């Protein structure tokens, strides 16, 4: 089952977006039928659909819904509302913009663009998985044959994309090739996306895994119980800074102390060459209730409020490598994502 997909119109009807409601996992697997941009924005705000690649696809498909359900003027207004639904993740805006750019060509062209983004994401996930495994073989040649102990945070698997995912796709590839000893998944506060979603995906693939509270991760790394850290990203800036789920920066510091690789795995659509550094990224704060209310029970006094940033920014110098579907970029060695992409574009540009 795909995390998000386009269901074509039947006779006399309109097309809809079908997506897994991730707020109900692991207890219930439910597919939502999204008919309007309002419904999609609600799903994004509730984190029923989340993960950078999946949000890019949601953005493109949502723009197609807007165009299907209105005219050029109303569709552009709806697309802008959708674009603004999650300010930190660049993929959502990127997906919207790709689809809106085809409005002048008609609905079929807009849908074609959205489906191409979906299909490209599937190919990207497989490419990142293979490239990430090759990098781990290069970085950890003495450990990989006996099996790697890998640490991750949040959810970067198929639920964050269409199929396979990003960092968890690499972990899956390590497992499929017989090189995995164990995966340690941070529970990931405040919505437990590691304990709920990553553990669910690892269980489905039959991979050995354990969960930990986020604050235990650095202790395990310091004791030598982790061989490498693999994370995703919601935005990577031109200099290689990476915004990801809150707690990622701490993992990068722990990996540096322990002397182990810290890898960011993300599609090239997550690289924002127009944002120079991580200090320019808008960090979403999701409010108090996600922190102090668990299973309907308030854990703090009523007057207690929370600082609840959904993301943090890991400086480029702490990142061993960024793995995309096309390349490996090594920020800690002075390589910039913007340089790699600009060089490629210049090489392939028409004279």
Kindly state the number of beta strands. 16
Side-by-side strand order of the widest sheet: 6-5-4-7-10-15-16
Can you tell me the number of structural domains?
2
* CATH homologous superfamily descriptor of the largest domain: Translation initiation factor eif-2b, domain 2
Count of alpha/pi helices: 11
CATH class of the largest domain: Alpha Beta
CATH architecture grouping of the largest domain: 3-Layer(aba) Sandwich
The succession of helices and strands, N to C, reads EEEHHHHHEHEHEHEEEHEEHEEEEEH
Write the layout of secondary structure elements.
Blueprint: E1 4-7, E2 16-20, E3 31-34, H1 37-45, H2 52-69, H3 72-83, H4 90-100, H5 107-139, E4 148-152, H6 167-176, E5 180-186, H7 193-205, E6 209-212, H8 217-222, E7 228-231, E8 235-237, E9 242-245, H9 248-258, E10 262-265, E11 271-272, H10 289-292, E12 293-294, E13 297-298, E14 311-314, E15 321-323, E16 328-329, H11 337-348
Parallel strand pairs: 4-5, 4-7, 5-6, 7-10, 8-11, 10-15
Antiparallel strand pairs: 1-2, 2-3, 8-9, 9-14, 12-13, 15-16
Helix pairs in contact: 1-3, 2-3, 2-4, 2-5, 3-4, 4-5, 5-6
Note the main attributes of this structure.
seven-stranded mixed sheet, 351 residues, Four Helix Bundle (Hemerythrin (Met), subunit A), Rossmann fold, alpha/beta, single chain, four-stranded mixed sheet, 40% helix
């Amino acid at each position: 089952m795909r995390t998000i997909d386009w269901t074509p119109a039947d006779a006399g009807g309109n097309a809809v977006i079908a997506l897994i409601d991730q707020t109900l996992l692991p207890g219930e697997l439910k597919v939502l039928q999204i008919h309007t941009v309002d419904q999609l924005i609600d799903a994004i705000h509730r984190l029923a659909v989340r993960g950078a690649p999946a949000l890019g696809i949601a953005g493109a498909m949502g723009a197609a819904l807007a165009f299907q359900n209105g005219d050029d003027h109303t569709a552009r207004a709806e697309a802008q509302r959708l674009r603004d639904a999650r300010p930190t993740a660049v993929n959502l805006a990127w997906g919207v913009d790709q689809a809106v750019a085809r409005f002048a060509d008609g609905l079929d062209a807009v849908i074609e663009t959205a489906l191409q983004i979906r299909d490209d994401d599937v190919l990207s996930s497989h490419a990142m998985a293979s490239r990430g495994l090759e990098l781990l073989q290069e970085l950890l040649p003495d450990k990989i044959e006996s099996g790697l102990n890998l640490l991750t945070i949040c959810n970067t698997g198929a639920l964050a994309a269409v199929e396979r995912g990003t960092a968890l796709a690499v972990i899956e590839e390590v497992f499929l090739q017989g090189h995995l000893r164990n995966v340690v998944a941070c529970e990931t506060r405040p919505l437990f996306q590691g304990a709920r979603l990553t553990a669910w995906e690892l269980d489905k693939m039959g991979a050995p895994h354990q969960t930990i509270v986020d604050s235990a991760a650095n202790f395990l790394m310091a004791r030598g119980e982790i061989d490498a850290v693999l994370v995703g990203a919601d935005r990577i800036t031109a200099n290689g800074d990476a915004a990801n789920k809150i707690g990622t920066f701490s993992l990068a510091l722990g990996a540096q102390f322990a002397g182990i690789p810290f890898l960011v795995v993300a599609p090239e659509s997550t690289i924002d060459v127009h944002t120079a550094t991580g200090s320019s990224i808008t960090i979403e704060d999701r409010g108090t209730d996600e922190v102090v209310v668990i299973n309907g029970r308030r854990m703090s006094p009523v007057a207690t409020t929370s600082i609840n940033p959904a993301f943090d920014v890991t400086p480029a110098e702490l990142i061993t490598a960024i793995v995309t579907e096309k390349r490996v970029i090594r920020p800690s060695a002075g390589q910039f994502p913007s340089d790699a992409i600009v060089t490629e574009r210049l090489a392939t540009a028409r004279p």
